[in-house]
Amino acid sequence: MSEEERKDNYSADNIQVLEGLEAVRKRPAMYIGDVGLKGLHHLVYEVVDNSIDEALAGYCDTIHVSINEDNSITVLDNGRGIPTAMHTKEKKSALEVVMTVLHAGGKFDKDTYKVSGGLHGVGVSCVNALSTHLMATVRREGKVFQQEYSIGKPLYDVKVVGESNETGTEVTFKPDASIFESTEYNFDTLAARMRELAFLNKGITITLKDKRITDDEGNHPTTRYFSEGGLREFAQYLDRNREALIQDVIYFEGERERIPVEVSLTYNTSYTENIQAYVNNINTHEGGTHLSGFRRGLTNTLKKYATDSGMLAKEKIEIDGDDFREGLTAVVSVKVAEPQFEGQTKTKLGNREVTAPVSQAVSEMLSAYLEEHPTEARLIVEKVILAARARHAARKAREMVQRKNVLAGGGLPGKLADCSEKDPAACEIYFVEGDSAGGTAKQGRDRHFQAIMPLRGKILNVEKAMQHKIFENEEIKNIYTALGVRIGTEEDSKALNLEKLRYHKIIIMCDADVDGSHIETLILTFFFRYMKELIENGYIYIATPPLYQVKKGAKAEYAWNEDQRDRLIHDMKGAGSESSVNVQRYKGLGEMNAEQLWETTMNPESRTLRQVTIENAAECDQIFSMLMGDDVPPRREFIEKNAKYAKIDA
Ligand code: 0RA
């Protein structure tokens, strides 16, 4: 059968039937990751992925996504439309089977080459099971077919509701509020994913509309994502706030050993490495065989070029793999028919057959480029040599630091007030802004399981500093010695000896003001660049001290926002006759006494901790480089755009 015949032959029978939907409602997290904001947004990705598959098959070029007024979602594509004919085995319309039978989408049918598909690959039936209402509308064969469902159960048989000379699939679903912690969609989160999908699948137009917002003319904010250049443009986008070392993006697209490979790379003048690796449109944070292939191709080709050019001969130092990746921005995307995902978060590609094709692709495109662009080639090799020199200096500094540590007893930092518990899973450490708040925290804590480490003022901005400066920095040294882990290097932030980590809750506690947020960001930048695994494993948290104390007589309560404050004032006024309610605005941690700090911010029974997660790895890198890097205008723009979140103190 030819490829075309195979596609045409796709009939209702191909849809495999595996299991029922009750399991999804019983254990939603098993199917969509979690029932928080991540899982909620995952529902959209699952539906969009089906349309992307249809586009990759060559039958669809436009996907419209809307967040409706009631936080339901509509996804509309112009593909062939899900088949509606009777499914012979199930004696139901194929549409109904796709919508109500787990794994029926054809993704588990090896005959059907499906490459996109959410991380969990669960299919749209799973979205249906987790929605109070879903409506599927299919336009094909001149007709409009429709079926509605409630928590996955059809409300009626598929029916014809009209005529149309268009084709496509439209799905509207309303996530079940009894399952999800929140059902409020975040436009920026969806936008980042749609933008990413547009780069990863060039030629497809994806629009995102927010119908919850209407302007004076009755329009809703809409963004359109379309990339003609694919990963070439993605790399440019990632580097848009950085200074380019070479103007070109080196690009490859093709198939090697029957594996579709697309790669782009460029160099900027920074010290950071930014490689985003995707498998079937999924960002593989933990890397894997495709990333190894990329690194191998890059290192071998550049090393050969540098050696042949004679530029290395003068250097007495050894160049290693890391040196080739300083200032590198790259995107790797492969499509694998049966991906094996491994690792902590199941985002590490295990398929061994993928390494060689990627490595070949990179070698080919890069050696051709270097031959044709001697000026740029020289710039790159010079940067590599500089990186190698800096790495040697950094290692020396690190060794010095460690030796000094050993001389000083090699113990924990003097400023650390440790806890008595030894089991890391039960231990917490607070990194506290300033010595004075640190002192209060020491008095207020439960010393059994809570350790306190005061940090003096602004820690070093690692985004702008050379590595050896970072290892030498006193506060940063204190941070990683207290944690008990080795510092990673920029190129290998996964080199941590996590089994030595002394606390499984690492809590950043800063003042609730602009300086506090700045310090928070500085610490997070350090963790993101040098200890990413701490974030990926969910160890990093941010404490949330209250903004107000509302007091009447001996009774004091706390508020974290203006609404809470006003409600407290109202309640307290109502409770008595005199107007003696006292409102205090907390500007800093230091304004609370030890007992108040414990009660509001540190007591596990009453505090709120915000866990730090990486929502979208490509965006994240970009935001840190923008917030902490050299280029000022994009930072100003970001701050102005997000200014609604920043409150000016009265
Ligand atoms: C299987 C076969 C055919 C279309 C689709 C799946 C399809 C699924 C989705 C999900 C969202 N949008 C979609 N578009 C198409 C077509 C088979 C044929 O027409 O012969």
Record the SSE blueprint:
Blueprint: H1 3-8, H2 22-26, H3 28-32, H4 37-56, E1 62-67, E2 73-77, E3 86-87, E4 92-93, H5 94-100, H6 124-129, E5 131-140, E6 143-150, E7 153-154, E8 159-163, E9 168-175, H7 187-200, E10 205-210, E11 222-225, H8 231-238, E12 250-256, E13 259-267, E14 274-279, E15 282-283, H9 289-309, E16 328-334, E17 341-342, E18 348-349, H10 355-372, H11 374-407, E19 428-433, H12 435-444, E20 450-455, H13 467-472, H14 474-483, E21 505-509, H15 514-530, H16 532-536, E22 540-543, E23 548-552, E24 555-559, H17 562-575, E25 582-585, H18 594-602, E26 609-611, H19 617-628, H20 632-641
Parallel strand pairs: 1-10, 14-16, 19-20, 19-21, 21-22
Antiparallel strand pairs: 1-2, 2-9, 3-4, 5-6, 5-9, 6-7, 6-8, 10-11, 12-13, 13-16, 14-15, 17-18, 22-26, 23-24, 23-25
Helix pairs in contact: 9-10, 12-18, 15-19
Bound molecules: 3-[3-(1H-pyrrolo[2,3-b]pyridin-5-yl)phenyl]propanoic acid.
3-[3-(1H-pyrrolo[2,3-b]pyridin-5-yl)phenyl]propanoic acid is lined by residues 10, 50-51, 54, 77, 79-83, 106, 169.
Name a few traits of the molecule:
Heat Shock Protein 90, Rossmann fold, binds 3-[3-(1H-pyrrolo[2,3-b]pyridin-5-yl)phenyl]propanoic acid, disordered C terminus, 4 domains, nine-stranded mixed beta sheet, globular, disordered N terminus, alpha+beta, 650 residues, Ribosomal Protein S5, domain 2
